[in-house]
Design a protein that fits this description.
single chain, 9% strand, 8 strands, alpha/beta
Length: 457
C-alpha cells in the first residue's frame, strides 16, 4: 500500500471510530489480545449486521484488515475507487452473478497476495447478512483460502485464523450495545493433514471447526422455542445471576458478562429440554402466558418487580419528571440543531435497506447517512454562527453541538419512559389485584428457575 492509500485508510478508520462511538452506546472488545500483532491473519466472523460488521472489526483491530466484500459495492465508480484504495477485495457470489463465478479465483489470488505480504484479511463465511442473531451455514471459502495458502508454503506460511463473534443488543437501534468476542487463533497448518490428497475432507474439517468456534463466541440457539425461553429467563433472572455469579471467574465488561451468563442459561435450558421435555414445555407455556399478559397491558417485567414498592415507583417517576423539567432547555437547543439531519438519517434508514433486511442494514445506512448529514449541517451551522459572532465563541458553539445532540436524543427517549411509568403506576395502583396476580406469577417463575439452577449447579 502506498503512502497516500495508508493516509486515506487511517483517516477513514478515525472517522469510522468516531461514527461508531456516536451510534453505539458501548462497544466492547473481549480478548482483543488474542489477535496476532504480526504475520498473516485471516479474520472469520458471523455476519448479522451488513457493512457495520466490517466497520467494527476494522476499527477495533490495531492492524489493517483487508475485507472481502460483495462485487455489488464496486459498481459505482467513486465507491470502487475508495474501497480499492482501502484494500477491500471484491468477490462475486452466486446470487450476484451466476455467470461470473470464475472471478472467485481472482478473489482468492488477491487474498493470497495480502497474506503473502504478512497482512490481514477479513471474511464473513456465511456469505449473507441476516435479521436474527443465529449463525447460518458456513461456506467453505475461508477454509479453502487458508488451506491453499498454507499448502503453497508447505505448511510454513504462518497463517493464523482468528474467529470473531459479533453480538448486538439491538442492532437497528441508535445508542445500543455491541460485543466483539475474539476467539483463540487457529494455526491453518494444523489442518493440512491429508491435503491435497483429500481436499474436500480437510476443507470440511476446518469449516466445521470454524463453525463450532463461532457458535461458542455468540449465543447460538437454532430452535425458536428455546430462543424464547432463554430470552424470557434472561429478562427474569439475569440480575439474580449477576449477584450470585458462579459462572464467570474473571473480571469482564458488562456486555461480555451478559453473553457468558446467557450462554449458561441456554446450556441449562438445553439440558432440561433433553432430560425433561414435558416439564420444559410446561414451564415455557407458563412463561409465555406471563409475558403475553405483560404485552397486553404494555408493562415491563422490571415495572412489575417494583409493584410491592409503590414509594420507589413514585420516586422513580418523580425524579424523571424533575429531570425532564430541568433538561428541557438543553434538549430544545439540541433538537433545534439536529432535527433536519435526524430526519434525513431516519429517511435513509428506511429507504435504503433491502426488503426483509431492515434490521440487518439499518445501522449501516444510519452510520453512513449520519456522517454525511450531521457533518454537512453542523459545519453549515458553525460557518453561519461565525459570520455573526467570530472566534472564540464559535469554537465553544461548535463543541457544544455533539453533546447537546446526544442529550436531546436521551431526553426524548426518557420522556417516553416517563409517560410509560406514569401509565404503569396508574394501572398497578388502581388495579392492585391484577398487580398482585402478575407479581405472584413472576415469583413462581423465579422460584422454578432457582430450583432448576440448584439441580444443574
Amino acid at each position: 500500500m502506498d503512502a497516500s492509500a495508508t493516509v486515506l485508510y487511517r483517516l477513514l478508520r478515525w472517522v469510522l471510530r468516531l461514527a461508531l462511538g456516536f451510534y453505539f452506546r458501548r462497544v466492547e472488545r473481549f480478548h482483543l489480545e488474542r489477535v496476532p500483532a504480526s504475520g498473516p491473519v485471516l479474520f472469520v466472523s458471523n455476519h448479522p449486521n451488513s457493512l457495520t460488521d466490517s466497520f467494527l472489526i476494522g476499527a477495533a483491530v490495531p492492524r489493517k484488515v483487508n475485507f472481502v466484500a460483495t462485487v455489488q459495492l464496486f459498481r459505482w465508480a467513486p465507491l470502487k475507487w475508495l474501497l480499492t484504495r482501502c484494500g477491500v477485495i471484491p468477490i462475486n457470489r452466486l446470487k450476484d452473478d451466476p455467470h461470473a463465478m470464475r472471478t472467485v479465483a481472482g478473489t482468492f489470488a488477491a487474498c493470497f497476495r495480502v497474506l503473502q505480504a504478512g497482512e490481514a484479511v477479513g471474511i464473513f463465511p456465511e456469505g449473507i447478512t441476516y435479521e436474527d442473531s443465529q449463525l447460518k451455514e458456513i461456506k467453505t471459502g475461508a477454509a479453502r483460502i487458508a488451506l491453499e495458502f498454507e499448502a503453497a508454503h508447505d505448511g510454513k506460511g504462518g497463517l493464523h485464523i482468528v474467529p470473531v463473534g459479533l453480538s448486538y443488543s439491538a442492532k437497528e437501534r441508535y445508542r445500543s450495545d455491541v460485543l466483539l468476542h475474539f476467539g483463540e487463533p487457529l494455526a491453518a497448518a494444523d489442518f493440512l493433514t491429508g491435503y491435497p490428497e483429500h481436499r474436500k475432507d480437510a476443507i470440511a474439517r476446518l469449516t466445521g471447526e470454524l463453525e463450532n468456534r463461532l457458535q461458542h463466541l455468540i449465543l447460538h440457539l437454532p430452535e425458536l422455542e428455546r430462543q424464547r425461553v432463554v430470552a424470557g429467563v434472561k429478562r427474569l433472572y439475569l440480575d439474580h445471576l449477576r449477584i450470585g455469579n458462579t459462572v464467570i471467574h474473571e473480571p469482564v465488561p458488562l456486555r461480555t458478562e451478559e453473553l457468558l451468563l446467557t450462554q449458561r442459561i441456554a446450556e441449562v435450558v438445553s439440558q432440561v429440554y433433553g432430560k425433561e421435555p414435558e416439564a420444559a414445555s410446561a414451564f415455557a407455556a407458563r412463561l409465555q402466558s406471563y409475558e403475553h399478559t405483560l404485552e397486553r397491558l404494555r408493562i415491563s417485567d422490571a415495572q412489575v418487580a417494583l409493584f410491592p414498592k409503590p414509594r420507589q415507583l413514585w420516586l422513580h417517576t418523580l425524579s424523571w419528571s424533575l429531570l425532564a423539567l430541568v433538561g428541557a432547555p438543553v434538549a430544545l437547543y439540541g433538537w433545534a440543531h439536529r432535527a433536519i439531519p435526524f430526519l434525513i438519517v431516519r429517511w435513509a434508514a428506511y429507504r435504503f435497506p433491502e426488503p426483509g433486511k431492515r434490521k440487518a442494514q439499518a445501522s449501516t445506512a444510519t452510520l453512513i447517512a449520519g456522517v454525511a448529514a450531521f457533518s454537512l449541517f453542523y459545519t453549515a451551522y458553525v460557518a453561519l454562527f461565525h459570520q455573526f459572532f467570530g472566534w472564540p465563541v464559535t469554537l465553544w458553539y461548535g463543541l457544544s453541538l455533539p453533546p447537546a445532540s446526544l442529550f436531546a436524543h436521551y431526553y426524548v427517549r426518557n420522556l417516553s419512559r416517563l409517560a410509560q411509568n406514569l401509565r404503569v403506576s396508574w394501572i398497578l395502583l388502581r388495579a392492585p389485584v391484577a398487580g398482585r396476580g402478575l407479581l405472584a406469577k413472576r415469583t413462581e417463575l423465579i422460584a422454578e428457575i432457582e430450583h432448576i439452577r440448584r439441580l444443574h449447579a
